[in-house]
């Protein structure tokens, strides 16, 4: 695909959306974008993007729109705007971590105006997004998936096709359960190593590739070691929203999650302690306080 042949829109220019837009611009795609935060929109324009006034404006000037949104309420607003936009044939790639039921509503309503919605949550942190190290869990219309595949390759190292619409979100919730548990386990293990007087960077390196390794140990372990969670790649308060979705989904299928439930409580306590705007790795700060 010649990038110039496809007009791409990005709605939601936060940590993930801004990283995605930069990859697209570097690859040569014409990219329009919108965010309710003017500073984010200005930064997007400074990077070479075409800043637009609303989501409908983005849709009317795009062939594919990538949505990276913080909440179901935001998706509701975007859905209403796109229903009024003149954008038949548009493909909306919904990458947010939301309840599948909310995405199904958006899919059904937008299909009436000729817009195809793909359920395509992304697995990875903000830092991984900046490195193009994301995994896309795509579900929905096969032809639309074929059409967007070259675009996803711009910022994802892998695209996994999961079939029926909604399977992407289910997979992402399961992935996030593991991310939460592994992040907390890394925090606990590194707290023990710190108390034992070991060099945390050396421990992380020593465990790399061993039976004890995990992606979160390698991604968030250095953040924990440096205590640099003030610059979030995933804000703890936003991560709690994802954890609540996991709890709701588990209840809907009558699944017991004792380890996850304990982990979730520590993340909640970290947010209550004022760490909500920090990276989710900041749960380690709470754990260290508990052990003092």
TrEMBL record:
The 6-phosphogluconate dehydrogenase NADP-binding domain sits at 7-160
Instruction: Pinpoint the 3-hydroxyisobutyrate dehydrogenase-like NAD-binding domain residues.
Output: 166-286
* Species the sequence originates in: Gordonia mangrovi
Which family does the similarity line name?
Answer: Belongs to the HIBADH-related family.
Q: Which UniProt keywords apply?
A: NAD, Oxidoreductase
GO terms for MF: NAD binding; NADP binding; oxidoreductase activity
Listed SUPFAM superfamilies = 6-phosphogluconate dehydrogenase C-terminal domain-like, NAD(P)-binding Rossmann-fold domains
Q: Which Pfam families match?
A: NAD_binding_11, NAD_binding_2
Instruction: Report what the protein is called.
Output: NAD-binding protein
Q: Where is the active site?
A: 172
Among InterPro entries, the record links this protein to: 6-PGluconate_DH-like_C_sf (IPR008927), 6PGD_dom2 (IPR013328), 6PGDH_NADP-bd (IPR006115), HIBADH-like_NADP-bd (IPR029154), HIBADH-related (IPR015815), NAD(P)-bd_dom_sf (IPR036291)
Q: Does Transmembrane count among this protein's keywords?
A: no
């Amino acid at each position: 695909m010649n990038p110039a042949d496809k007009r791409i829109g990005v709605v939601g220019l936060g940590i993930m959306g801004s990283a995605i837009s930069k990859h697209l611009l570097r690859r040569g795609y014409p990219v329009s974008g919108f965010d309710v935060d003017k500073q984010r929109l200005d930064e997007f324009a400074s990077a070479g993007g075409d800043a637009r006034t609303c989501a409908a404006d983005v849709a009317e000037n795009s062939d594919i729109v990538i949505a990276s949104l913080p909440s179901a309420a935001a998706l509701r607003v975007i859905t209403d705007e796109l229903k009024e936009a003149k954008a038949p044939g548009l493909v909306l790639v919904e990458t947010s971590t939301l309840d599948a039921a909310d995405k199904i509503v958006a899919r059904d309503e937008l299909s009436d105006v000729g817009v195809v919605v793909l359920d395509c949550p992304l697995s990875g942190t903000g830092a991984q997004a900046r490195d193009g190290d994301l995994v896309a869990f795509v579900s929905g219309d096969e032809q639309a998936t074929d059409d967007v595949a070259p675009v996803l390759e711009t910022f994802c190292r892998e695209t996994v096709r999961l079939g029926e619409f909604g399977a992407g979100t289910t997979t992402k919730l399961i992935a996030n359960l593991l991310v939460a548990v592994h992040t907390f386990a890394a925090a606990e293990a590194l707290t023990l190593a710190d108390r034992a007087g070991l060099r945390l960077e050396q421990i992380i390196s020593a465990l790399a590739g061993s039976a004890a390794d995990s992606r979160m140990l390698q991604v968030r372990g250095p953040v924990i070691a440096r205590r640099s969670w003030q610059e979030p790649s995933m804000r703890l308060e936003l991560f709690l929203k994802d954890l609540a979705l996991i709890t709701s989904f588990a209840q809907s299928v009558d699944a017991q999650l004792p380890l996850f439930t304990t982990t979730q409580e520590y993340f909640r306590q970290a947010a209550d302690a004022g760490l909500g705007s920090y990276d989710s790795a900041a749960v380690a700060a709470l754990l260290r306080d508990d052990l003092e």
